[in-house]
Automatic annotation (TrEMBL):
This is Elongin-C. Belongs to the SKP1 family. SMART domains: Skp1. CDD domains: BTB_POZ_EloC (cd18321). It comes from Handroanthus impetiginosus.
């Protein structure tokens, strides 16, 4: 995997999670940080530090990103298939 295809999320304790950029983009906040115009550190270096989120919580967040990336599309297809929300 290329470096530009990954994002580094850093917990309050300094633990680094290197995850797929697609997974990180599940979060609108992280997406905004990484794609906003200008010379922000997050945009330039592809890393986001969360000084108030501990390692255990950030790990669960990363797991959720991958879960959402894998299953969100399936749920939306199922909802459309059964006409829910129409």
């Amino acid at each position: 995997m290329k470096k530009e295809d990954t994002v580094k999320l850093i917990s309050a304790e300094g633990f680094e999670f290197v995850i797929d950029k697609k997974a990180a983009m599940v979060s609108q906040t992280i997406r905004n940080m990484l794609t906003s115009p200008g010379s922000f550190a997050e945009t330039e270096h592809g890393e986001v530090t969360f000084p108030e989120i501990n390692t255990t919580i950030l790990e669960k967040i990363c797991q959720y990103f991958y879960w959402s990336l894998q299953y969100a599309r399936l749920f939306s297809e199922a909802i459309g298939k059964f006409g829910i929300g129409r």
